[in-house]
Amino acid sequence: MKPTKSGPFSSPSALIEDLPAIVSAAAAPSLDAWNYWVDAWQRNLLFLDVMRQRSERYAEHAAKSAPHVLKFECDLVVDGRKLQRPVNYALVRVRPPHGVDTDEKRRPFVVVDPRAGHGPGIGGFKADSEIGVALNAGHPCYFIGFLPEPMPGQTIEDVAHAEAQFLERVIALHPDADGRPAVIGNCQAGWAVMIVAAMRPDLVGPVILAGAPLSYWNGVRGENPMRYTGGLVGGTWITALTGDLGAGKFDGAWLVSNFENLNPSNTYWTKNYNLYSKVDTEAPRFLEFEQWWGGHVLLNAEEMQFIADQLFVGNKLATGELKLQDGTRVDLRNIRTPIVVFCSKGDNITPPQQALGWILDLYGSVDDIRANGQTIVYSVHENIGHLGIFVSGSVAKKEHDEFASNIDLIDILPPGLYEAVITTKDTSDPTADLIEGGYLVRFESRTLDDIRALGGNTLEDERKFAAAARVSEINLGLYKTLWQPWVKMFANAGNAEMMRRMHQARLPYEMFKADNPIWRILNPLIENAKADRQSVAPSNPFWQAQKMYSDLIISTLDGYRDLRDKCQEEWFHAFYGSPLVQAMLGLSGSDTSVRSMPATDRNYQMLVERRIDELKSNIAAGGPVEAAVRALLYIRLSEGAADERSFVLLRRMRQEAGKGLPIRTFKKILREQFFMLMIDERGALDAIPQMLARDPDAAADMKKKLDRMIETIRLQNPEAKQRYADMRAAFAEPLPALDQLEKSATHSPGGHSLSERKSHSARHRNS
């Protein structure tokens, strides 16, 4: 339009010429509204169609005799229902997908899924998963899953014994494997795996705990509300009531509801809105996940009561207070294989404090960890959520892939506490060919202060949780005495089944089944929407308004959640922190910690003392291979780190010099050399020439391999460089005859130190 002095239009012809633009501008809001309305109508229909598909898959999944969500084909190896103490668990072998080959001589992996309300399979939910990366790394892979219904009388201890028998079977199937099975315990399966490893340490190789809570009281104020749940409801009496109303069975849907209540905005809005807003592309991913999320399973009431009393509220596993039926105490310090803990700061179900707090409960220092011969590795993700630890493809390709690829390196790490630091591979690095995959993992030494720095409870906080545990015991006793007989009198299987079907976690899956009459009306409309789909543009103002409305709902629900959690936390601390309440419960009579560290058994102390004497007496035993390992440890201990490049070279050393030495034997050699350095560093170093003299030719070869390894791993600090220079000189100096060296060592009290020999050799060269 061209305005003139006489008006906005110069002539009637100009008006006619600009009419389409005028009409279009005037009709634009109405057109946007119409496009949005059509899109919204179709989205609602397509959303309902996805809900129907979810219900159909739910019904189909529940009808299976052994429902699971594994994406790999499997073969049954052991049926737990046929064991002497029958359980609803089974061991299967996972078939590698087409194009993936596994090596029967490599250690097998065993993945154990959590029985925490959902069905099994999350460990192999997709190709990029724990099972997938283990298979891709060439390891035979097994899976321990379970059926929806527990066996009559089945207990947690029965499950532990069954899993031990499963591991025995895996070991028997791989007699030539290069190490015991690596066992992955996801979430609640983590503590179950740890119990088995403590009961039968001879059956397991490295244990990987993914998002597994072991220290249930631990957490940070304002961040971990789930740990207050037991205290808020007065303890585990409500668990007993739920089991009684279920006619002796506990519905796993209640556990799922507890998870969902942590994040109401996701449960009641975000999850479904994400599907609605992306209904054209999001349906496959949504349906795949919901098949697992809605696959609820049952536990025996006795099983759930054990979990609630001993773990959730009692928190007895971390301090060695958990006892088996025969009175045996489950002590996690009995585990002799490496323990890898993978957790995340973004996990509101298993925060790092609960995943790692057991270390502080059991040990007073890193030296205590070493004295027990334990190797503990941890890795803390910055933001991934609880489920992402198991189902995220990015996590599988990075953390789980690195753990699987470097499991043998983890297995031979010297005892101590390490953090796994994973960095992106530098392709310009000349040693990049020694790094598998796209990341480099480095294991750096840590102290208990590094664990404490993540946060945790104060002494007063521990007393409050102890008070909650005491209240739980009292209320459970009152319930069993006064109410349980009446509840059991009226409870029956029919009512229990009706309650399960009406549970709030199941109803959404039941409502949209295909037999609902409403589909007779909706089906033609859905088909029309699919045939004439008209998506609205993201720039549409009504679509933008919808997004703003969604954000408002999310922020409102998040605000409710934060207020609720804050109030519950304040109530918990106010009530259980009351001096009167604590005095009435018998917890105010002393200022000592209510969670004392478990005592060290005297027989174990005597065993350690005998072992130290044995190591000292054999400090000069071995040949050039042992001497090279000792020298390498001495050099690297000053840096407190190891990465996969050094292990690749170490493995080559083992294959070349050790003539295919089994990794178990090589691990024994490495640990013996480590302990000798810890017990008597001076004596261990002084014995190196005597060890080299047993095979001078092999000693020269070991010197070359040691040089090559040090050049590859690049020493970082001056002390390590000085130690390397000392070791290089020790390997390079002329070796006397072995009989003369041993005779000299016998007649000279204490012999000469390594530094004294180097000084004498230097004076001889100068003269």
Structure description:
There is one protein chain. The protein has 767 residues and is of the alpha/beta class. The chain contains 33 helices and 13 strands. The strands form 2 sheets. The chain has an 11-stranded mixed beta sheet with strand order 1-2-4-3-5-6-9-10-11-12-13, sandwiched between helices. α4 links the parallel β5 and β6. α1 runs parallel beside α9, α1 (12-62) crosses α21 and α6 (237-245) packs antiparallel against α10 (301-313). The radius of gyration is 32 Å and the shape is globular. It starts with 11 loop residues before the first helix and ends with a helix.
Largest sheet: 11 strands, mixed
Return residue spans where pLDDT drops below 50 for at least 5 consecutive residues.
Answer: 744-767
Computed over alpha carbons, the radius of gyration is: 32 Å
Sheet with the most strands: spatial strand order: 1-2-4-3-5-6-9-10-11-12-13
Strand portion, in percent?
Answer: 5-15%
- Integer average pLDDT: 86
Question: In summary, what is this structure?
Answer:
By secondary structure, this protein is an alpha/beta fold. Mean pLDDT is 86; it is low at 744-767.
Features of the shown structure:
single chain; 767 residues; alpha/beta; 13 strands; globular; disordered C terminus
